[in-house]
TrEMBL record:
Pfam families according to UniProt: Fer4_20, Pyr_redox_2
First and last residue of the signal peptide: none
Domain FAD/NAD(P)-binding: 151-458
Protein's name in the database: NAD(P)-dependent oxidoreductase
Keywords associated with the record: 4Fe-4S, Iron, Iron-sulfur, Metal-binding, Oxidoreductase
NCBIfam families in the record: gltD_gamma_fam
Domain of life: Bacteria
Domain Dihydroprymidine dehydrogenase: 25-136
Length: 478
């Protein structure tokens, strides 16, 4: 009788890949987790219970066939595991690194609910695709047959790249326009290297170029090129700009020197640390935490990226202010743990009231308590009167989230419909807007969200766009 390859969660304990020691990793921007060896990947994959209703799959925005590729990994059929993994996910090695698995697939694992510790889904996913790259199984998506239609995609982030990949594989001529000098969006310039090393992103960009996707960099739509010009050159256009307008603070002294936006700080760090670019604001110390008392304001994953970056730049102290408690923090709990190990101090139930000095020398902090739940069900923070204190700071980083830019005004397109939040109004799943041949996906539709949701939107939109073009071709042929 053949040995049962799965359901080993009772006998085999959960075991994450080895994490580099905090005193070592907090001095560089290399990824903090080691790679699984084959035997360890097979062992951890074999813990999957192969349950009849896979909650891991249903709670993954891409609905990845997780139980299938775990079983194939456990039985040594790794190339087949990769084929199953990439069938639903354009960038599985990226999602394996940066997805908040503790809130998605792993957080809904059945054996986790029974007290045995979740299957290490993200780490196995990363191992599968990294091995596929090493073995040469990952091939450019060169189409079997070319088509004459062309699509312009505005934005080279994960959503735009996912759409570009699928459309190019179908034979369409694809051009991606992006404001930065390198493609990848926040994958390239927003997420630090210790979570996502940049060669992982760049090899995907290179693969898309090999497949025939054309990139137009340093192109700010509305300045360097009009939206009408792009529409005129293509049969369809996908808006995938993301959201880059930072939410701001209010209060005395908010305009002081030394108060920076998270996106500017992270971009400068990624350019200098990961690409070796000369960044004047970094070299001058304006966006460099070295030797400084750093205070980061916010509670999401961007705030986590900022505090952990500041530690690596050699800050004398790093503190995070968040107006709720740890249990109500929107960022990944795994990231909070990593930051604490690396020396970050968390000041829960605190909020900035104002700032002293110019350049900034202190944040005026007020203490909070949690009151009654708001409309979302979360407890609302309430001010504790008379609890103010000064927190010394040489560099303050605002990581309060992002909002959409005013695209109708910036692009001179008043007919581009937006919601009351400023996001582009688009049809659910397809991305179709009210403008003929114009689609919108990702954060510019959803608001600031996860990379995995942008990938899902890009893939769904590509499928809908192909359906529309095929329908138009069929009508024209009649």
């Amino acid at each position: 009788m053949a040995k049962q390859p799965m359901l080993k969660f009772v006998d085999v304990a959960r075991d994450m890949p080895e994490k580099r020691d905090a005193d070592v990793r907090n001095k560089d921007f290399d990824e903090i987790y080691a790679e699984y060896a084959q035997a360890k990947a097979e062992e951890q994959a074999s813990r999957c219970s192969q349950c009849g209703v896979p909650y891991c799959q249903s709670h993954c925005p891409l609905h990845n066939n997780i139980p299938d590729w775990l079983r194939l990994t456990a039985t040594g059929r790794l190339e087949e595991a990769y084929e199953i993994s990439q069938a639903t996910n354009t960038f599985p090695e990226i999602c394996g690194r940066i997805c908040p698995q503790d809130r998605l697939c792993e957080g809904n694992c059945v054996i986790e609910q029974s007290g045995h510790g979740t299957v290490t889904i993200g780490s196995v996913e990363k191992y599968i695709t990294d091995t596929a790259w090493e073995k040469g199984w990952v091939k450019p998506g060169v189409p079997m047959q070319e088509r004459g239609e062309s699509v312009g995609i505005i934005g080279a982030g994960p959503g735009g790249l996912a759409a570009a990949d699928m459309l190019r594989r179908a034979g369409l001529q694809v051009t991606v326009y992006d404001r930065y000098d390198r493609a990848g969006g926040l994958l390239t310039y927003g997420i630090p290297g210790f979570k996502l090393e940049k060669d992982v992103v760049m090899r995907r960009i290179d693969q898309l170029e090999q497949a025939g996707v054309r990139f137009v960099q340093n192109c700010n739509v509305g300045e360097d090129m009009t939206f009408d010009d792009i529409r005129a050159q293509h049969d369809a256009v996908i808006i995938a700009t993301g959201v880059y307008k930072s939410r701001d603070l209010r209060g005395p002294g908010v305009g002081a020197t030394g108060i920076a936006r998270a996106i500017d700080y992270l971009t400068a760090s990624n350019r200098a640390a990961n690409f070796g670019d000369k960044v004047p604001e970094f070299e001058s110390g304006e966006l460099n935490a070295k030797g400084k008392k750093v205070v980061v304001i916010g509670g999401g994953d961007t705030a986590m990226d900022c505090v952990r970056t500041a530690v690596r730049q050699g800050a004398s102290s790093v503190k995070l202010l968040y107006r709720r408690d740890r249990a109500n923090m929107p960022g990944s709990q795994r990231e909070v743990q990593n930051a604490e190990e690396e020396g970050v101090q968390f000041e829960w139930l605190t909020a900035p009231k104002g700032f002293k000095g110019d350049p900034v020398s202190a944040v005026v902090v007020e203490r909070m308590r949690l009151g009654l739940p708001d409309a979302t069900g979360r407890q609302s923070p309430e001010l504790i009167e008379g609890s103010d204190y000064d927190e010394p700071a040489d560099l303050v980083i605002k990581a309060l989230g992002f909002e959409p830019e005013d695209l109708p005004t910036l692009w001179g397109q008043p007919e581009l419909e937006v919601t009351r939040w400023g996001t582009v109004k688009a049809e659910f799943t397809s991305g179709r807007t009210a403008m003929p041949g114009v689609y919108a996906i990702g954060d510019i539709v959803r608001g600031a969200s996860l990379v995995v949701w942008a990938i899902r939107d890009g893939r769904d939109c590509a499928e809908a766009l192909l359906t529309d073009l095929n329908a138009e071709a069929a009508v024209a042929a009649e």
